Amino acid sequence: MKTNSPHSFHIPVMGLGFTIDSPVKVARFGITSVLSIIEDHLIEAMREVLCKKENIAYHKIETHEDDHRARRVTAFLNLQDDIIKKQISKIKSEDFNADEDINKYFEMLPDTREEKQLYMRLNSCSKDERLVIETRLKESITAGAIDVNIMTKLDKINYDEHGNELPSEQSDALSALRGYANSTVKSSIIFSAGMNPRLFAYCETFSDFYPDSNGTIKKKIVLKVSDYRSALIQGKYLAKKGLWVSEFRVESGINCGGHAFISSGVLLGPILEEFKNKRQELVDELYKDCQSGLTSANRTLFPSKPSMKITAQGGIGTSSEDAFLTNYYELDSTGWGSPFLLVPEATNVDDETLQQLATAKKEDYYLSHSSPLGVPFNNFRKSSSEQQRKSRIAKDRPGSPCYKKFLILNKEFTDRAICTASREYQKLKIDGLTKTIRNEELLKNKIAEVEEKDCLCEGLGASALIANNAKLSHNLSAVTICPGPNLAYFSGTFSLKQMVDHIYGRLNLLNNVNRPNLFINELQLYVDYLKEDLAKNLEELSVKKANSFQAFKNNLNEGISYYENLFAKIKAADILFHKNNIQVLNAIKESLNQLLIPAIQKTA
User: Fold this and answer.
1) pTM above 0.90, yes or no
2) Residue 1 in this model has a pLDDT that exceeds 60
């Protein structure tokens, strides 16, 4: 489906800092990107960086100031909004005959866009016609959006300097939401990691999330979801409050960057098929609920059904895959994340980490258990944070100092929650294990599980500070980076134009590398995950866990059947379904069938 956006892709949020200023880097070319707004310390540091670059006076918002978390977010977003407006104004004043950004803007557009076709006519038309076309082109220039992300699970309660609990409105997620709501930007907020009723309800207090008399929503709500059921439940919860979900962003549960919210073996293809088949049903049901919610809230009703986008991301690596997803599943846009980590013009990756990524091999990317959230986390073996973690263990000082406390969720040993990656927690946990476990091998494995947890608050923001020569937070320079496994198929560093040309099929950055398509890659990742999880639980397998494993395997087999039918329907005309992929699919199917789930009997 076509949209008004100049491009058919967006750059999703990556970590805390990798896309934190991507809007000022790519929005002037019509490209939408997403930044995290949960980490106010990093946001304030990057606001200072941008002010210095733009020669704008910087006035620090101190932590002791009233509502500093929300005000930092507002100030940072307003700054980026102002910078981008100036950039767009400058581009519109540029000469098409010079080596200017205005040419880069149109050169990167999809070839199917009317503006691109007009641009291609510039050098072959008369002088008078050229003036008319140039005017039309300049009028068509549209900035990409400054979209923001809140991971809903990052919502700790905060305290004042005397240790008194602050009101719930001062929690991390609610403060970030308020900061966004009070900003000048017109864009979308993406809620990821599931439902947070307190956060969702807080949206009701800001008019920008509701339609005006024309049905226009200044700040739109986007939900990142893993399946249709999740979309329906969360969508209805919001709709009944009069809050419209303008986009459901479907992400692969495992073939993605950052935290991997593993599904129960349900694959991306079947998930997107359900969205395709039930899309109108979803729109109709949520629209009915939303109009009722608006009426109850005494808000302006939508004059007609508003648009609802369905987009997808996670593991897309070729223009053929992108085109197939868009056309077959009738998507409005696709998300290209990890490959942009190799594009310095678009993201913040320090030189050392960038070179490590540019030369990395497939085995350097792995699914870890390093996140204090307790959710599988895509990790990079060569990262300086991983080396730091191992060094601390070698020095008998496992764990991290805990300064920012965004992930303090554990109360196993303390009245007030602490982080499982912290030095405090790991010492207490390891001491307890040592006293209670006599089997040396079991003790070793349990301690390794504890020590695998690593600090994300500092590591996921360090690269942005290093890349911009900014002051490091607490002098910690170790970089955590969380690319999706798909990055293994990209080598080198690229310009923004090169990556965009790759997305649209004008350039191939994979150099004909042997790479199964995204569906096959995801399937293999899930089979590997099932095998590893089964092996880890085999000795103490409960009835419930055995049934869970069997359901997981059944879902994978159903997904394989879906792909067999899909491949047969599409035939081999599309490179997406060439013979090699069918052979790999058959091999994975055989491997899965050989995996036996023990039958556990219930005890009397």
Assistant:
1) yes
2) no
Is residue 90 within 8 A of residue 104, CB to CB? The reply is no
* Contact by Cβ (8 Å): 466, 368: no
Instruction: Quote the distance between the C-alpha of residue 411 and its chain's center.
Output: 29
User: In whole angstroms, what is the distance from residue 90 CA to residue 245 CA?
Assistant: 34
Average pLDDT, the chain: 95
Beta bridge mates, 159: 165
pLDDT higher than 80, residue 146: yes
Residue 76 C-alpha from the chain's centroid: 20
> Going by DSSP bridges, is the β-strand pair 333-335/309-313 parallel, antiparallel, or unpaired?
parallel
92, 141 in Cβ contact below 8 A? yes
Q: Tell how far CA 518 is from the center of its chain.
A: 17
What is the C-alpha to C-alpha distance for residues 546 and 548, in angstroms, rounded to an integer?
Answer: 5
Q: Which residue has the tokens 């092996």?
A: 535
Q: Is the dihedral of CA 175, 178, 182, 183 positive or negative?
A: positive
Task: Report whether 10 contacts 31 (CB < 8 A).
Answer: yes
DSSP classification of residue 188: E
For residue 70, what is the enclosing H or E element? helix 68-92
Q: Residue 183 is which amino acid?
A: S
Which residues make beta-bridge pairs with 248?
Answer: 223, 310
Looking at the DSSP bridge assignments, the partners of residue 249 are: 224, 311
Q: Encoding tokens for residue 54?
A: 């733009």
- Cβ-contact 119, 130 below 8 angstroms: no
Q: Are 338 and 483 in contact (CB under 8 A)?
A: yes
Helical ranges in 141-258 per DSSP H: 172-181, 197-202, 228-239
**Rounded Cα–Cα distance for residues 421 and 401 (Å):** 9
Query: Is 456 a residue whose pLDDT tops 60?
Result: yes
DSSP 196-208: -HHHHHHGGG-GG
Per DSSP, helices labelled H in 415-570 are 423-436, 440-451, 456-467, 496-503, 518-537, 543-570
CA 432-435-440 angle, to 5 degrees, is: 110
Mean pLDDT to the nearest integer, 182-211: 98
Contact indicator for 29, 340 with CB cutoff of 8 Å: no
DSSP-derived pairing of the beta strands 333-335 and 245-251: unpaired
389 Rama class: left (phi>0) / alpha (psi -120 to 50) / beta: alpha
CB 1 within 8 A of CB 331: yes
Please count the other Cβ atoms lying within 10 Å of the Cβ belonging to residue 67.
15
Contact assessment for residue 196 and residue 165, using Cβ atoms and an 8 Å cutoff: no
Measure the CA–CA gap between 280 and 265, rounded to whole angstroms: 26
Q: Are 484 and 380 in contact (CB under 8 A)?
A: no
